[in-house]
Automatic annotation (TrEMBL):
It is found in: Cytoplasm. The lineage of its organism: Bacteria, Bacillati, Actinomycetota, Actinomycetes, Streptosporangiales. Signal peptide: none annotated. The gene is grpE. This is Protein GrpE. Residues 60-87 form a coiled coil. Residues 1-31 have a biased composition (Basic and acidic residues).
Amino acid sequence: MTTSPHEGEEKEGPVIRDKRRIDPETGKVRETGGTPAPEPQAKGGAAASDAGDSSLKTQLAERLADLQRLKAEYDNYRKRVERDRVAVREQALGQVLSELLPVLDDIGRARDHDELTGGFKSVGDRLEAVTGKLGLERYGQRGEPFDPTVHEALMHSYSADVTETSVADVLQPGYRIGERVLRPARVAVAEPDPNGGSGEEAAGEE
């Protein structure tokens, strides 16, 4: 007896799948199978994106700090170079002008004795003008407060006419360039005398 290849197998009819999302019996939304909703993946992706942004911001902040540090170092270097340049210029200029101080002293003494006349006066005035433009300043005036950093006391006296240690007389003017003293002013110094008397002595003597 020949058996048909399809005998013994259950015959299957057409398969009908209800894809309606609303259950007609309950009226509720059916849960669909298949691939899970992408929300967890989206959350994971957002977390990874936030971590990447945070890392990028950290790197940018570090690079910005590096640039700021380099800029500060460069600014300090530039200031040091400028200070050194000014110091070298003043030192070289001071050496040249120091050689001219005896000449300027002669001109000053000639002026004090009314001997600065004629062509000598013209040359003297010109020399003083040129050295002044180069920054050379003459200082030391009678009556100004005594300052041991810029004055050299050669004589000392007491006087009832002063209320503080002062320059009583300028024996030789001082010269400076800016804050640099080329030669201190050599002066006679007067101090207040509490007894109202007066006297004079060489500096350094009892």
